[in-house]
Amino acid sequence: MAINTPKQTSHLKREILVRLIKAYLGKDFEEDTRLIPYDMRPKGSDVPYRCCIHKERAILRDRTIAGLGLSIEEAEDSELLSTLAKRAQDRTEPEDNPLTVLQTACKGCVPSRIYVTDLCQGCVARPCESTCKFGAIKVENGKSVIDPAKCKNCGMCAQVCPYQAIAKIIVPCENACPVGAIAKDEEGLAHIDFEKCISCGKCVSACPFGAVHEKSQIIDILKEMKAGKKVIAMVAPAIMGQLPCTPKQLKQAIMTLGFADVIEVAEGADITTKNEAAEFEERMEKGEGFMTTSCCAGYNELVDKHIPELKPFRSDTKTPAYYTAEIVKKETPEAITVFFSPCVAKRREALQNKNIDYVLNFEELGAWFIALNVQVSTCDEAEFRKESSAQARNFANTGGVAGAVNSLLDDDKKATPYVIDGLNKQSIRDLKKFAKNGKCELGNLIEVMACTGGCLGGSSTINAYKPALKQLNTYVSESPEIKDVLK
Questions:
Q1: pLDDT tens readout for residues 269-319
Q2: What span, in angstroms and rounded, lies between the C-alpha atoms of 311 and 419?
Q3: Is there a single domain that holds both residue 207 and residue 234?
Q4: Residue 247 and residue 264: Cα distance in Å, rounded?
Q5: Rounded to 5 degrees, what are φ and ψ at 47?
Q6: How open is the CA angle 440-446-450, to the nearest 5 degrees?
Q7: What's the predicted TM-score (pTM) here?
Q8: What is the CATH number of the domain that holds 140?
C-alpha cells in the first residue's frame, strides 16, 4: 500500500516534479531542468542521504529523468538534463514501459537468503533439521548450518526454531513483487523484466531508497495545454479521498490547472456495473463455476501474462476508465483525455487504449497544485456534469465492485462474493487453483484488487488509507443509488 512508501522518497519525487512544472511554465525549460540537481543541492549544502554531494546530485538527476518521462536505463551518463528535457518535449507519445530503475539510488541489496544467527543454541530437538525437506540444514559443532546450494528460501526452519535464531534476509522490491518480475542483474542492481511485470507498483512502494520510479507524463500534458488543445481530466473514484476538500472543490481546483473539464470515472463505473451484473447472471444460468471482475488493470495484466487459464472466467466487461474515455471521445473527438490514477497499472491500460491519451497519478497532481500554489480547500465549487451512483464511487474500496454488481441482481440471483484484497504469491496460487478446478468454493463472484485496500491503497496515492477511506465513505453516503442513476 502507498502508506508504506518512505516519506523522504515521496518528498524528493514531489519536489522534482514541482521544479519540472515550474521550469516548463517558465522562460527556459531546458536550462532550468539542467539546474535542478544543483539547485536542490547547491555547493556547501548538507548531504542528508548519501556519501557526498556528487552522489546526491547524480541521484537527483536520475529522478529528474523519470520525471521527464524517460527511461533512466537508456539515458547516457554524459547526456545533459537539458538535452533530455528537449527529448521529452519533442516526443509524440509516452514511452512503452511505465517503470524505470534508478541504479544510482539502488543499494544493490545483498541476496535474499536464510541464515543462522548467533542465537542458535544447538538444541537436542533440532526441529530446523528435521523440518527441512531439502536436506539443506544440519548441526555442526553445536550450531545449525545452512547449505546455500540446497536451501530454497522457504523459511520453514525459521518458523519452527524455538529461539527464533534463524532469520531471513529479504530484498524489499523482490519480496514485494508477486510475480518475480524484479531481480538483481549481473551487476547486483535491480532490473525489471517487463515480460513478467504486471505494473502493480508494489516494488515502487517497497523500495526504501525510492529506486523504482514511474515515468511521468506530466510534460506531455503540459505541452498539449500549451498548444491550446482541449484537455479533459477523467478522475478515478479514489481521488475523492486524497485531498482536504470537497469533490466539487477538487473539480474547480483541477480546472484551475488548465483542464477544460473534469469527468468522474464513476460514470464509466456505472456502465461497468450494469454490464458485469448482466454478464454474471448469464454465466450463472449457463452453469459456470464462477466469474472474476475485470476492472483492475494489474489483475488483467496478471491473467494475460501469468494465468491464461483464468481468461474464460474473467469478465468480458471493460473497465470504468475504458467506458469513460469512450464517452468523452464520442462527445468531444478532438479532446485530449487524461486519466487521473492511483496506481501504475493504469498507465499500461492507457497504452493499450487509443481513447486514453495520458495518465496523471495522484502524486503528480499534488505536485502540480504546489507548483501553481493552488489551495484546494479554498477553491470554489464546480458541479460535475452528471451524478454518479454510490456504488460506482465505491469502486475504489475493497469489495466495492462486487457490492455494486450484487446491488443490480434480483434476490434469487445474488452472487456470493469472494474478495482478493491485494495480489501476492498466495492469492495468485489460489487463483490458479480456482482456474484449474473450474470453481471457487468460497464464492461465485471473485473481486480481484491488485492493491491491498483497493484503489485507495494504490502505489501513487497521497493520503493514508484510513483517512482516505473515511473521506470516500462520506462522499459515497451522499450519493444516489445506482438503480436511480440508471433509470
A1: 999 999 999 999 999 999 999 999 999 999 999 999 999 999 999 999 999
A2: 18
A3: no
A4: 10
A5: -115, 95
A6: 125
A7: 0.91
A8: 3.30.70.20
CB atoms within 10 A of CB 22: 14
Q: If 0-12 CB within 10 Å is exposed, 13-18 middle and 19+ buried, where does residue 441 land?
A: exposed
Task: Name the phi and psi angles at 140, rounded to 5.
Answer: -130, 130
DSSP code at position 314: B
- Which own/partner contact pairs does 124-131 have at CB distance under 8 Å and 24+ positions apart? 125/162, 127/157, 127/160, 127/161, 127/162, 128/157, 128/160, 128/161, 128/166, 129/157, 131/156, 131/157, 131/159, 131/160
| Domain range enclosing 264 | 220-485
Final residue of a structural domain among 169, 185, 201: 169
60, 13, 18, 19: which is closest to 37 by C-alpha?
60
Q: What is the pLDDT of residue 7?
A: 54
- Domain check: are 89 and 212 in the same one? yes
Give the integer Cα–Cα distance in Å for 123 and 116.
13
156 and 182, same structural domain? Answer: no
* Rg of the chain on CA atoms, in Å: 24
For 5, how many CA atoms within 13 A lie in the half-sphere containing its CB? 30
Helix or strand (DSSP H, E) at 264: strand 261-264
Element (H, E) at 330: helix 320-331
Write out the three cell numbers for 364: 503528480
Query: CB 149: neighbour CB atoms within 10 A?
Result: 7
Same domain assignment for residues 163 and 178: no
List, for residues 82-121, the tens digit of each pLDDT value.
999 999 999 999 999 999 999 888 876 877 889 899 999 9
pLDDT, average across residues 386-409:
97
Distance CA 402, CA 395 (A): 9
Sheet with 291-292: strands ordered across:
291-292, 445-449, 417-421
Q: What is the 3-state secondary structure (H, E, C) of 191-243?
A: EECCCCCCCCCHHHHHCCCCCEEECCCHHHHHHHHHCCCCEEEEECHHHHHCC
Q: Which H/E stretch holds residue 448?
A: strand 445-449
